[in-house]
């Protein structure tokens, strides 16, 4: 008997997969046949996806909420669709786009129309991701122009840093002791020490 599966992907571990899980539950996909990956979509080397691909067989049905669950870009989505439907004989249904359901119209015309719709939607999905990245980059550039600084604020150098730095270099104190005396993490103390030494070296070169 053909089996029904569902695949869920969220792009980071902080995102919630409930929206996709609820959609699959509403069409009665067995919970044990739902595979979830909670990691970056930068590649398709995902553990749940690999397990699903080992189990799914010809004439089985795979549900996904949207086409971007099948790949990270236009080319990968099309290739995943081709391998599953053409090589492995699996049916795919995209819940957000009823036209993308290989159970509909198994004849040549139905397949042709589904392939065209898939290509258009895959392109639109990738184009939207590119637009989002472009808008983010523009927003960051505009913020920089306004003087907005990103990341953690730089910790000021404590007044006793220079004295303790010299004692550390003279081996009168360990790195840990010097950092603790400054009230800085060891890595921060070391980073500021290197920056100071590099700056001194540049000054000597100029002189």
How would you characterize the overall build of this protein?
Mean pLDDT is 78; it is low at 202-207. The protein has helices at residues 18-26, 47-55, 74-87, 108-145, 161-169, 175-182, 186-206; strands at 4-10, 34-38, 61-64, 91-94. The chain contains seven helices and four strands, in the order βαβαβαβαααα. It has two domains: 4-133, Rossmann fold; 161-206. The chain is α/β, with parallel strands linked by helices and 207 residues long. A four-stranded parallel beta sheet has the order 2-1-3-4, sandwiched between helices. Helix 5 runs antiparallel to helix 6 and helix 6 (175-182) packs across helix 7.
Characteristics of this structure?
207 residues, four-stranded parallel sheet, single chain, 52% helix, 2 domains, alpha/beta, Rossmann fold, disordered C terminus
Number of helices: 7
**Main sheet overview:** 4 strands, parallel
Distance between the ends: 83 Å
CATH architecture of the largest domain: 3-Layer(aba) Sandwich
The gross shape turns out to be elongated
Mean pLDDT: 78
Strand ordering within the main sheet: 2-1-3-4
Give a short overview.
With 207 residues, the chain is of the alpha/beta class. Helices cover 52% and strands 10% of the residues.
